[in-house]
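Hi R.,

Quick one: here's the RAS protein activator like 1 sequence you asked about.
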Amino acid sequence: MAKSSSLHIRVVEGRALPAKDVSGSSDPYCLVKVDDEVVARTATVWRSLSPFWGEEYTVHLPLDFHHLAFYVL
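And here's the predicted structure, written out as tokens:
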């Protein structure tokens, strides 16, 4: 019996993100977490409110996982 499953994830872009820097822009990146553990992180896109990442990941999920979450920071 398998102990985990694989999930293919594509993080493409963010649109109209809120400005978080004093300069009126942001330096966004995206985190993918499985049960509060970071399993993937995109590159930081400097000075952008509409970042393009175009990144792909294969994440191994334990069969008993509870939460899969995406955060744009």
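Strands lie at 4-13, 30-34, 37-41, 52-62, 68-72.

Cheers,
M.
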